[in-house]
Amino acid sequence: PAVVSESLAESTGYRENFPHQLIDVPPSDVLLPAACLPVYPFLRGRALPASVLVTASCARHEGGAWEAPYRLRTFHMMELVMVGSAAYVGAVRAEVAEFFERTLPRLGLPGEMVAATDAFYLPGGSGSRMIQKLKELKREYVASHSGTVLCSINNHERYFASRFGLGDDGTETGCIAFGIERLALASLASWGEKEESWPLELRPE
Hints:
Layout: E1 3-5, H1 6-11, H2 14-17, E2 24-25, E3 29-31, H3 39-42, E4 50-59, E5 74-85, H4 86-103, E6 111-116, H5 126-135, E7 138-143, E8 149-157, H6 159-164, E9 171-179, H7 180-191
Antiparallel strand pairs: 1-3, 2-3, 4-5, 5-9, 6-7, 7-8, 8-9
């Protein structure tokens, strides 16, 4: 859904960690800021491990800091959400990271995976951010030509599993997120608008 309840924003911790990004819809809703958020309550009580692919229309205020074309207030996000053991989540993250590093440069989008930080996983102090980077809980594929982040690969550890009662004490979650407009614009900037210059695999038949 493009609009979700304020209670979801609070139960996921989004209101606590990113209040400046939320766009309120009176009297008690918000515009969906991330595609994965409704997935966690949906998975409560379901068989694990599980992976769910979801696409949604999202909106973030970013505290007024947005800049076209790569940072938009409204955009579409695709996310792969994984729930299971630490080994399961880690294996999917590693497989996807290797796929990006192998495939995106071949499609004319060279870049690298870099460690990043996110307020969801640990408190936001400088020491906690260092721990996040050392543990590589969040990794991003940064395009060389623009410095734009094309996707992020996240390990939430027990954060969402404990909040929504998913699985047992060993259950963790992770997600892999793409901004669809951002990826499309970065691709066109690299390939050009003429279809004959696009990678063969992506040209319309």
